[in-house]
Each structure stands twice: as structure tokens, then as C-alpha cells.
Structure of Phosphoribosyltransferase domain-containing protein:
Amino acid sequence: MRCYLCERVFLPQPTWSQLFTTRYEAVICERCNEQFERIDGGKALFAYNATMKDYLHRYKFLKDVALAQVFRQDIHHALRHRQEIIVPVPLHKNRLQERTFSHVHELLEQADIMYTNMLMKCVDDRQSQKTLQQRQADTKRFDLLPHVPIVNKRIVIFDDIFTTGATIFSIQQLLYEHGASHVDYITLIQA
Ligand SMILES: [Zn+2]
């Protein structure tokens, strides 16, 4: 097996305990794996560090879609028993076209987590000349897709990275306004 990150050849050698809890074979070597900083018991699975920064760059901007597999075990483990509806944060359609795949959706796909598309992104952040603060103040950044049942639903928003919380909180507010009974969130990374 060649590590997806450093390209060294390695032998996936699960420990005895991992044999019973691990569903997927590792795609990165132990040395790379140790560079990521896991967070226990929070709403994010990993801290943002230099290794994660490099990973995100390769995954999102160099469009290396195979890297969605790196965290599939962690995401699978974190979400598989959630009873709520899992709702990924979408890209704006212009960004989707440019990136060719939705990095947030792909993380869920690779982790075999069922999700429901409920949202559309209305504002293409990169085309706007305004500052982030101005955009947050005067635009509706997300809207609901038509015909999605939401009243009294329990929802978990899933996103790749929690930075200021602006994205998550605006979606939370939107879902509550439309009748969701509970809106939680989980992200891969805490910036
Ligand atoms: Zn490696």
C-alpha cells in the first residue's frame, strides 16, 4: 500500500483492538496519521494544524478526490449512530463547477453515511467584493431547497471546517425558522 499523503510504501497493520473496530483499511501510513491532531468528545474531530492545512489544500484546491478516504473511519465512527438527519453544507454552484466535486459530500460518501440535501448556497463568497462581515450582515447566504420536509425534524449539519461559526450558525437559524425541532452540528476540523 502506498500512503496517499507521503507516498511511502507501508503495510497496514491493525492492532488487535483495531481489527474489531475498524471498518476500512488505512490509506495513509502511521507516520502521517500521527501528524493529525484528533479531538475527543467535541463537535469537531480534528484540530487545524500544519498537516491538516496541507491536507485541505490538496483535497479541496488541487482536487485530489481520493483524499476523501483519509478520514472515512473517523467520520463513519462519529456519525453512524446519529439518529438525526445529516445535512451537508453545500458549495455555491459556481464553486462546484470549478472544483468538480463537493468536498463535504464526498467525505460523507466515502464514510458510508446517509445524508439529505436540504440547502443551497445563494452567495458566491469569492465573487463578492464585500468583506466577510458585510456579507454576513446583509445577505442570506443559504436557503432551503424546495419541498424538503423540515418541520419538527432533528438535524445535524455537517461541514469540513468550523472557523468563525458564521456558516453553521446562519444555517442553524434558517432551519429553526422553518420549523426544525433541533439543529446540532459536527465538523471535520476546528480551526
Ligand atoms: Zn504517509
